[in-house]
């Protein structure tokens, strides 16, 4: 496995932030079952697509 050149800046990547949000929602949903009524299952699919889109979009803040 080879890391990207700027791996130390990973938390500033929009795709990493979106992935962390998905993980946090999943954990929160397991800890508080009442959230399952609020967040439809399709939300995870939509968030996953947003992660893929964010990964391919140029993020100028990483080139500083």
Describe the structure.
- The chain is an all-alpha fold.
- The protein has a domain of 43 residues.
- Helix content is 58%, strand content 0%.
- The chain has three helices and no strands.
- The protein starts with 13 loop residues before the first helix and ends in an 8-residue tail after the last helix.
- The mean pLDDT is 79.
List strands and helices in order, with pairings.
Blueprint: H1 14-31, H2 35-38, H3 42-56
Helix pairs in contact: 1-3
Low-confidence runs: none
Shape, principal axes of CA atoms: elongated
Overall average pLDDT: 79
Largest sheet: none
Q: State the total count of DSSP E strands.
A: 0
Give the termini separation: 25 Å
- Which structural class should the secondary elements be placed in? mainly alpha
Helical fraction equals: 55-70%
Number of helices, counting only DSSP H or I runs of 4 residues or more = 3
Strand content: under 5%
H and E order: HHH
Rg on CA atoms, Å: 14 Å
Q: Assembly type of the shown chains?
A: single chain
Which short descriptors sum up this protein?
single chain, 64 residues, mainly alpha
Explain briefly what this protein structure is.
Helices cover 58% and strands 0% of the residues. The protein has 64 residues and is an all-alpha fold.
